[in-house]
Amino acid sequence: MQGVQGDAHGLFDVVRRDGYDAVLCHGVLEYVDDPAEGLRNVVAALRSEGVLSLLAAGLGGAVLARALAGHFTEAHQALTDPDGRWGEGDPVPHRFTADQLTALVEGAGLRVGAVHGVRVFADLVPGVLVDTEPGALEALLKLEEAAAELPAFHSVATQLHVLGETRGPDEAAAHS
User: Fold this and answer.
1) pTM score > 0.90 for this model?
2) Per-residue model confidence as pLDDT tens digits over 13-52
3) Mean pLDDT score of the chain, rounded to an integer?
4) Residues contacting 4, CB < 8 A, separation 6+
5) pLDDT category, 131, cuts 50, 70, 90?
6) Phi/psi of residue 25, nearest 5 degrees
């Protein structure tokens, strides 16, 4: 195993093309100017039998969090903004829906293996409840695990995880 860190748009300054079995792209697409191009570069680093682990900020979770905090105008702004931003002070340049992320992964030439909602409830639950109620943390973790794979909860997750898999030669030919 070799850990390498680099910018998605200048990735091949630090890694070689077609050289890796797995690439973790966590917390990256939110910050690149062109997420589709950045993801294509990341995918180009994979070998023919490679796997991509993509984790990105979820739009629904941000909208829900702003609304529950009483920031209704910011929630509406995030909901209607093409990049999912709630305003000038928003530190996250891009947020995504599960459909947007899966389209990006497929557009980069990968097959979507799985989609998971991450932090569906954890960012919304007051910390005092988890810290003071006996067994609350374990119960929250079980709830998160149960909701992660259910598509109904992807739309409210703070983060979305997409597993992308390279297409085999037969599948790639059929897809083109």
Assistant:
1) no
2) 788 888 889 999 999 999 999 999 999 999 999 999 999 9
3) 90
4) 14, 15
5) confident
6) -120, 80
